[in-house]
Specification:
The structure is a homodimer. By secondary structure, chain A is of the alpha/beta class. Chain A has a single domain, classed as Rossmann fold (3-Layer(aba) Sandwich), CATH 3.40.50.620. The first copy, chain A, is built from seven helices and five strands, in the order E-H-E-H-E-H-E-H-H-E-H-H. Chain A has a five-stranded parallel sheet, with helices on both faces. In chain A, helix 1 packs across helix 6. The radius of gyration of chain A is 17 Å and the shape is globular. At the A-B interface, strand 3, helix 3, helix 4 and helix 5 of A face strand 3, helix 3, helix 4 and helix 5 of B.
């Protein structure tokens, strides 16, 4: 029987690629999406399409209302920044940083993994293309893993150590897309935009759209999703 | 202006004592309760009474549906064990262990602390009287703190290190009660029972009631709350 893995799945390009990698590595994927007060349900709809397409053993949407606290463009109280091109990204941690988000997500994943008796958690964090987020760095991931292996009954009483897999952490967006295309990922199912219109179309000028478009361009591939403002390259 | 602290407040005896200790240490207490699919709303009602009584600067109830996953007597899918006395507690991790609960709670506390620009989090974990829970041990708490200080924008960009305070971690239940009484805590506002009746009365025979009754007895004090089955000592 294949090993179970909990896979954090936002429905974006990175987490979808990670799911395909976990499948290829022979894991039975348990998809975990988190409704954390995002402005848009569009992301969760994409996660459902991806989970079905990649044959998740199960797909669970957990709720945690981080929007209670505010403090981020992604939980609704700051405007999502728009720009012309990736080169315009300012240095430092972006306004779309959500306080402690990956810690909350990994904690919930750890809870589910323990109940499933799974020892593997996959997450699509990336330290290269969007290095502003502190909770996307390898040293953070290793520290979470150390903590997790002191936290659970599974680890302490049964010796089941948890591994946090972050197969994209050192890849560029172009390399991620190449990897996914080689694995047959349909990126038309995914959603990356931080600020889609009411029609669901990606804006083409938030940081997430810019990095996605640049990645497809550098990979020499066509992004199959539709954009509101342009279909070109950042 | 006093420093802000996020204080995890279940409305039980331990977290209430911790709140009083944080007050005494001069912190402005921001009470955080988590609705995680408990069987009973009685606990959250107690948290509200305690937050008001101890003059919380704010009291927030965050939701996270850990009951999606099951795996614990406290999220509803296993019966809460009942016993005659504390000596009957079996060794090992109890059935009331909730997978990764403290990790999820601390992660949410970390998110709120970052938004508040607070560097201090208080939690009523205890490694002595109820040492079965892996995520109540000092080594776990230190590992969480290490991880937290790699996770946030506050730590990485602004150098604001988070401290997790666990002032009860090495105390017996009797010592906790003595400390709280000396600080003027009204334990009549608190709720500890894992399995209260529909009338809200504590059962008197779950592990939490047994430890509480034993603590009051050893402290030479009277527990001011009413019990369903007995008012005596375990």
């Amino acid at each position: 029987m294949p090993n179970k893995a909990v896979i954090l799945l936002s429905g974006g390009l990175d987490s979808t690629t990670v799911f395909a990698i976990a499948n290829r590595e022979g894991f039975d994927g348990y998809a975990l999406s988190i409704r954390y007060g995002q402005r848009h349900a569009i992301e969760l709809a994409a996660a459902e399409r991806v989970a079905a397409s990649l044959r998740a053993a199960e797909h669970v949407i957990a709720d945690v209302n981080l929007n209670l606290f505010g403090g981020s463009a992604l939980t609704g109280d700051i405007d999502v920044p728009k720009r012309e091109r990736v080169a315009d990204l300012p240095p430092g941690i972006p306004a779309t940083y959500v306080p402690a988000r990956n810690t909350v997500f990994l904690a919930i994943a750890l809870a589910w993994a323990e109940v499933l008796e799974a020892t593997d958690i996959f997450m699509g964090v990336n330290a290269l293309d969007y290095s502003g987020y502190p909770d996307c760095r390898p040293e953070y991931v290793r520290a979470f893993e150390t903590m997790a292996n002191l936290a659970t009954k599974a680890a302490v009483e049964q010796g089941r150590r948890t591994t946090i897999h972050t197969p994209l952490i050192e890849l560029t967006k172009a390399q991620i897309i190449e990897r996914g295309l080689a694995l047959g990922v349909d990126y038309g199912l995914t959603h990356s935009c931080y600020d889609p219109g009411s029609d669901g179309l990606a804006c083409g000028s938030c940081d997430s759209c810019l990095l996605r478009l640049k990645g497809f361009s550098e990979a020499g591939a066509i992004d199959p999703i539709a954009y509101k403002e342009r279909c070109g390259v950042a």
